[in-house]
Design goal:
heterodimer, A: 316 residues, alpha/beta, TIM Barrel, eight-stranded parallel β-sheet, two-stranded antiparallel sheet, 13% strand, B: 448 residues, 3-methyladenine DNA Glycosylase II, Chain A, domain 3, Rossmann fold, 3 domains, three-stranded mixed β-sheet
Chain lengths: 316, 448
């Protein structure tokens, strides 16, 4: 008697969302099974990777993270171009760290200017990520939404405290809102409902359930993403049927273990490979939980993860 | 599949005799279903019911142990498919591969790294668990010699790998006291390998070319009386190997499919030639149901991320990880160095300590026992309160290490600073940043 594979009965699927515009627009979502469970469902769109660009010249990065970009650090347009042309980035994630009022506190005008420069420099979708300071993000992201109207940018984080204003701007100027909540299924759902009530169309929203790096809360993100997917696919919770984005390059490369030189920690091995593997093991875990979009830093990580995604989804 | 309380109740005597210590049979049945009572507590249950109930209550994934003495690796026993449902009980074992065709240098390096690459994190000791010794030459005496070398060098659980019975027999002879895992029983040799495992009371692995073949093999070995079985599904392409792991574990847990109710072994070392990619393949099986992963090599840069991932995936999802309370010195502080205090939620500790270390400013960090809550949550719950902090500062011994009386508290606990000044008379209480990332900027400017 042949063994019969026990299959899940999925009752829901993830919405397909198109990011960016033109030939290089990227569509994510559409899954009708748990991630890579291809023996019982479909994953019509593979998970996709965005590469980071920063709006200032970082000074505290480990050598491994600086090296691939050393000719373009401090020049966001050149950096974005290099990511696309040399490293094959399918999307760019512009990290607006310099607007932090507790940090460099750069002006809204500067943030708008750098965003426009980056958007003009590349033809791939651009994710614009603020500093999770509701007051600052509201002002900056609203201005960017307006000045880049029609670009179909992906804008966030949009949080409970600033969703009305940033959400309204994404509606008015046709961008995608990154609904962001602190590692909790119910809070994620609640914010999605609030944004829906505000009028954000279903095809203009993705979800960021907050990312913890390997050793720094990864398990919380992992389980929340799994639970969101479970609710979306098996409990027909249509308020959670959105693609998920994880901003993990920023989180992983700032950890102590990704920064330590080999001389300071011989048992942790080669510093460059270690940094990349910390980023990649975090990325693999999040993909297995249900992430659709990963924001990564190192070009080698992008290559490795793309290769793993290809192998996980290869035709049999 | 686990029985419900009602299903169990139907098999009990239903006399409410209370001999089991529970007022009614129904209540006892409910306790059994919840795993809070043992059937043995009921002296009146029929032999037939006992058999039914005990087979229904057998763990869906059979427990297996490899090794003896101080180096026993235990696996199996998991009951759920998702970590938020209940803690995963058996963390994936990490094995390194050694073969009789490797040079002495390569073998020596792997064994040395097996011993040296160990890490402490949140009070947990992280290390690899097993050494897989493979016969590639097919020669029994060279295999036996290699087993002896490994046994003499490291105290690890051993996996003996060959498809030849005489080679495996020689290997088992060299380490039968170590209860090695015998790998591998296939269609061709299952009888002889099964007998070898039975005679030496060792766990045995099966390998087939598809799940039907695996089921035949486990059925046969179980029929020989072997209980400790490990499954190698045989697939070596990423997609198929991943799907097999999911299907095997799901069949065991959701369908109580006994022939697949065993731990699994996966071979990232046979799926790629690149150690970086191998690490990611291993990480996939750590997340999804691999009980043992065999790696081609151990390096700090690859082993450390896998050990931390394993710790993350296999922690109790209900209980926050906590750091030991106490005084933590960073960057060689002295009697004039600043003193900061934070909570003992391990993430808080990691992030705060990482920032302090990165700042290069000599600093004392006090960690208060907040029962694993973060600063803000602990403050809201009254566990990061002035009286607790005051008592801790006085008792923990920091006053013997410093000449000043200055303390920096987290920005989220700003509202307790007044009360804390009363608790710690003569101290200067400074409100630090809310976010750890702003600590370096803060302590570079801060004067005690």
């Amino acid at each position: 008697m042949g063994f019969e594979i026990p299959k899940m009965n999925y009752t829901g699927s993830i919405k397909e969302i198109t990011l960016g515009k033109g030939d290089k627009a990227v569509t994510v979502g559409g899954e009708s099974s748990y991630p890579f469970y291809l023996f019982e469902g479909n994953m019509p769109r593979k998970p996709r990777i965005a590469m980071e660009v920063y709006d200032y010249e970082p000074t505290d990065w480990p050598e491994a993270a600086v090296e691939p970009f050393k000719d373009v650090l401090g020049n966001p347009a050149a950096w974005a171009k290099k990511n696309v042309e040399v490293y094959g980035a399918e999307m760019i994630a512009l990290q607006l760290r310099s607007i932090d009022p507790n940090g460099m506190n750069r002006s809204t005008e500067e943030a708008v200017k750098v965003t426009k420069i980056v958007v003009d420099a590349v033809d791939v979708p651009v994710i614009v990520w603020g500093v999770a300071n509701p007051e600052r993000d509201t002002e900056v992201l609203k201005a960017i939404a307006e000045q880049c109207a029609g670009e179909n940018l992906i804008i966030g984080p949009v949080e409970e405290k600033d969703y009305k204003q940033i959400g309204a701007a994404t509606i008015a100027y046709k961008h995608i809102a990154i609904a962001s909540s602190p590692i909790d299924v119910n809070l994620a759902k609640q914010l999605n409902i609030l944004l829906g009530n505000l009028g954000v169309p279903e095809n203009q929203m993705i979800v960021n359930p907050t990312t913890g790096a390997l050793g720094y809360g990864l398990e919380y993100s992992y389980s929340v993403i799994e639970r969101i997917r479970m609710a979306a696919l098996t409990q027909e919770d249509d308020k959670l049927q959105y693609p998920i984005i994880c901003n993990l390059g920023f989180e992983t490369w700032k950890t102590k273990e990704a920064k330590l030189p080999q001389a300071d920690a011989p048992t942790l091995g080669d510093a460059k490979k270690r940094g990349i593997l910390i980023e990649c093991v975090t990325a693999m875990s999040l993909l297995l939980a249900g992430a659709d979009i990963l924001i990564l830093r190192h070009p080698d990580s992008v290559k490795l993860i793309n290769s793993m995604i290809a192998k996980m989804t290869a035709a049999e | 599949m686990a029985l419900t309380g009602i299903e169990i109740y139907k098999m009990l005597p239903q006399t409410n005799c209370k001999d089991c210590g529970v007022p009614t049979c129904l209540a006892f049945a409910m306790k059994l279903a919840a795993g809070q009572a043992k059937l043995d507590a009921c002296p009146h249950v029929s032999a037939e019911a006992r058999e039914k109930l005990s087979s229904a209550s057998a763990p869906p994934v059979m427990p297996v142990s490899i090794g003896s003495g101080n180096s026993v690796f235990k696996t199996g026993g998991d009951t759920v498919l998702f970590r938020h449902e209940k803690t995963f009980v058996s963390p994936t074992g990490i094995a390194v591969l050694i073969t009789d065709k490797m040079s002495d240098t390569d073998v020596g390096k792997r064994l040395k790294n097996y011993k040296d690459l160990q890490y402490e994190r949140v009070g947990l000791h992280l290390k690899a668990d097993l050494v897989a010794i493979k016969s590639e030459s097919g020669d029994a005496s060279s295999f036996e010699k290699l087993v002896n070398t490994v046994k003499g060098e490291v105290d690890a659980g051993l996996i003996l790998m060959s498809d030849k019975v005489d080679v495996l027999t020689a290997g088992v002879k060299a380490c039968s006291d170590k209860k090695p895992l015998i790998y591998v029983a296939t269609k061709e040799n299952a009888d002889a390998v099964g007998n070898l495992a039975k005679a030496n009371k060792c766990p045995v692995a099966v390998k087939g070319s598809n799940l039907d073949e695996i089921i035949e093999l486990t059925t046969m070995l179980a029929g020989m009386g072997l209980k400790e079985i490990i499954i190698d599904a045989g697939s070596r392409t990423m997609r198929k190997a991943f799907e097999d792991q999911v299907i095997i574990r799901r069949a065991a847990i959701k369908k109580s499919f006994k022939q697949l109710g065993f731990p699994t072994i996966a071979f990232p070392c046979e799926m790629t030639n690149d150690l970086m990619e191998e690490t990611l393949i291993a990480s996939t099986f750590i997340a999804k149901y691999g009980s043992i992963v065999v790696l081609s090599d151990l390096e700090g840069e690859s082993l450390f991320p896998l050990l931390v991932q394993r710790m993350n995936i296999f922690t109790d999802p209900q209980r926050p990880m906590a750091t030991e309370k106490g005084i933590y010195p960073f960057n060689n502080p002295d009697e004039n160095s600043p003193v900061l205090i934070t909570s003992n939620f391990s993430l808080t500790y990691f992030i705060v300590s990482g920032e302090i270390e990165g700042s290069r400013v000599p600093t004392w960090l006090l960690v208060l026992d907040t029962e694993g809550l973060s600063v803000l949550t602990a403050w809201a719950a009254g566990k990061f309160a002035a009286d607790l902090i005051g008592a801790f500062v006085k008792k923990c011994g920091i006053m013997d290490k410093i000449k000043h009386k200055s303390l920096v508290i987290p920005g989220f606990a700003a509202s307790i600073s007044g009360e804390l000044e009363e608790e710690l008379a003569g101290w200067k209480i400074t409100i630090g940043p809310r976010e750890a990332q702003h600590i370096p900027g803060f302590i570079k400017e801060y004067k005690v």
